[in-house]
NADH-quinone oxidoreductase subunit C (Falsiroseomonas frigidaquae), 254 residues
Amino acid sequence: MCRAARRRRKRWSTGSCNCRRRFAGRGPFSVADAQELQALGAAIAEAADALVGGAVVEEVFVERGAELVLRARRDQIVPFMEMLRDDPRFAFEQVMDICGMDWPERAERFEVVYNLLSLALNQRVRILVSTDEATPVPSLINVWPAATWYEREAWDMYGIVFAGQPDLRRLLTDYGFEGHPLRKDFPLTGHVQVRYDETRKQVVNEPVVLTQDFRSFDFLSPWEGMTTLPGDEKVHQVRAERGQIEGPQGGNTP
C-alpha cells in the first residue's frame, strides 16, 4: 500500500469551524478597523494640505466603524481628487458614485457626496462637499470622465450646479420638467401632470388638478347593508308558504 493511501483522513464537522483561527492574520484584503481608517484619513488630510498649501480637509471621521468620511473645501475639490487618484499611497482610481443630500435648515443646504474606490489597495473613502442653490461646485469631468453621468443626475434631482460641466441637462425626468424632485421642499404631487389628450392626439402637460368626486357613504358593513342576495327569492317564497300552512302559532290551520 502506498504512503498516500495509509494517510489518516481528517475529521470534518459542521458543528464547529476554526476559520477564525485560520484567518486570524490580517492580510492585504482584510477590512481595516476604525483606528486604521482614522490614520488613513489623517494621512490624506496631511498630503492634501501639503499639496495645495492650505487646509483642504475640514473634518475626518469614521461612520459605523467601517466607513471613512472626509469633509473637504469646495474650491479645492479638483486638485484634491487628482491627488487621491494619482498618489500611490491612496490610489483611488475609480469614482463609484456622486450623489446629493438636502438639508433645508442649513445655510448651505446641499451636500455633494463622492464615493471613491481603490482597487489596488482595496479601500474606500467618502468625500463630502457643501454648497447652496446658487454656488456651483467644480466639475470632476477632467479627473473622471464618468462623472458626467452622476453630475447630471445630481443636478436633475437636487438642482446642484456643477461649474465646467459641458453637458449639464436633465437625465431622469422628462423634457420641460419643472423643479427638482428630491428636494425636501418639493411637493409630493409635483407641479405638472402628464396625460394623453384624445382630441389633440398627443401627450399634454398641465397643472396638477386633484379632483375628489362626490360620493355618498352609508357607513354600513357589507353584511348590514345587504338585505337580499341573488337567489334568495325562492327562500322567501318557501318561508311564506310554510307560514300559511303552519299558521301563526306553528300549528296546522283548520
